[in-house]
Amino acid sequence: MGQSPQELRRDIEETRTELGQTIDTIGDRVSPRRMVERRRASMRDGFYSMRERVMGTPRRALSSAGETVQGVPDMARRETEGNPFAAGVIAFGAGLLVAAVMPTTDLERQAGAAMRDEIEPLKQSALDIGRGVASDMQQSAEESARDITDHARQAAEEIKAGATDAAHQAQSHAS
Question: How many helices (H) and strands (E) does the chain have?
Fold first, then answer.
């Protein structure tokens, strides 16, 4: 025989509850705000982790086999611990990889467009300063090249004079 009406109602109510939780989970998963929060949290955790590697903070000992298996990726971290250059190179490479894999969101495109307008004057200032520095460096390099040429010419003349004197002395000793 089938289920009683009370059992059916209870099953229906449990199914509704499960479906409601599933829909809430899906809504949370696709919510732009939650996506941004998850991405921020991930970047923040990565930053703190990188800071620990660069600053060389002590690691706590692994206490179980499960933690040991999870700790295998940390071997690269231990190799770079206290070495800011290696950690920086690894972080830069990881950043490039993440940037290449993750698609750009509408929010990021909008933020990029807004930043572009604000950054343009700074970019022009930086370019102007860079051109000025390049011009100064070019003048300095030209002066240094002239000095080196003059010193080389003087050294060549001194060597030539010394060689001529040595040849005359050798001839006078020979005769």
Answer: 6, 0
